[in-house]
Predict the structure of DNA repair protein RadA.
Amino acid sequence: MGKNTSQFVCQNCGAKYSKWAGHCNNCDAWNSIIEDLVVSEASGKNAISQAKTSGQILKFTKINEITVTSDKERLKTEFPGLNEVLGGGILRGSVTLLAGQPGIGKSTILMQICAEVAKKHQVLYVSGEESASQVKMRAARLGADSDKLVFVSSTSGNDIAKTIREGDFDLVIVDSIQTLAINEISSAPGTVSQITNAGNLIIQAAKSTDTAVIIVGHVTKEGTLAGPKVLEHLVDVVVNFEGDRYGGFKTIRAVKNRFGPTSEAAIFEMNEKGLSEVQNPSAALLAERQNTDGSIILATLEGTRPLLVEIQALCTTTNFGYPKRAASGFDLNRLNLLIAVIEQRTKLNLSDKDIFLNVVGGIKIKDSAADLAVCLAIASAAAGRKLSEEYVVFGEVGLGGEIRSAFRPDQRINEAKKLGFKHAIAPATIRDPFVIPVKDLRSTLIQYVNE
């Protein structure tokens, strides 16, 4: 009988090592190598030989005879935007992985979901991080006092899976997967093997009982989901909770959804009663805006929702030989690329300028159509001139300085019209009287950055 041994696996890239090391030579990550249990070759051969005779013939069903869960059977939350992100609500039998930074509001929104679902359905809240009194205080503050909402504190994946199988629950919250461990593995909670196997147990229990499960996951300092990548493949829905933990708007978007689109986004803000959905984020983001140099209004999209946000740029003369570039809410590499395009294609000298870019409200912009607004903001700040209050801006900028088309321009234009803007500086490919067409970056900067 062979003996099981251990190996060390990098949680970031999956590279394997015979002993622990603080640095992964494959992906250059630090403190990402965790011990994992390895089944010996003899044990593996015995298991394979037993598996050849222990299986049974599966019962198959004709595809046209399979019953499908309708949208009416989804569990609705109190947030219409979150329901859209999830594809119409929480589907029975689905497993959702919710990830977000510490303190951003994951436990808060989960308790609010419990409060709404528990009005009609049985809900189980499992916490491996907090005591019963801590959860009770949050539940009392958010109004989650239904008899159908029950609580248990446990870090045993075996016990949680057994409870899901034996209990009659419609929704189960597990907070969080990094605290769970199963009896068959001796490694510490949070390791690759514990997360993978505990997740597997819970997913199998959810599928066998048609119970909806939401699992909370931690994130790394880079903002990616902590733990093995296989966990994201196992679950049905992966939802990211993004934003500034200390203020501003927070965004929930699905990066994976087997039952709906991944293009939707829900925008929230925190108040004394918990998280509330922002119905008109564009008006809220522009309420305190002052039209100064370096301030440009961008018509962007959060999923399929049009949104107007303010892009602010600040240019100052550098005191060092190498100018500083910094961005909040915008990709720094993209900013450096756009600065290079401005210098090369418009002959505006920025080599002696420190450039700072900010997206107001804590919104993170990933829309390629934000390029033109960023370039106009930088040029406006560098020249000390401002754009007219009548304009919104959108469009992608190519390396040749050309202005390229944007995704769903009609929605952007309609949102700008609702808030009283007169014109949109946008790509020339858009045929609309509201649009002032532009073809290249140089002529745009010369014509529209006026005093």
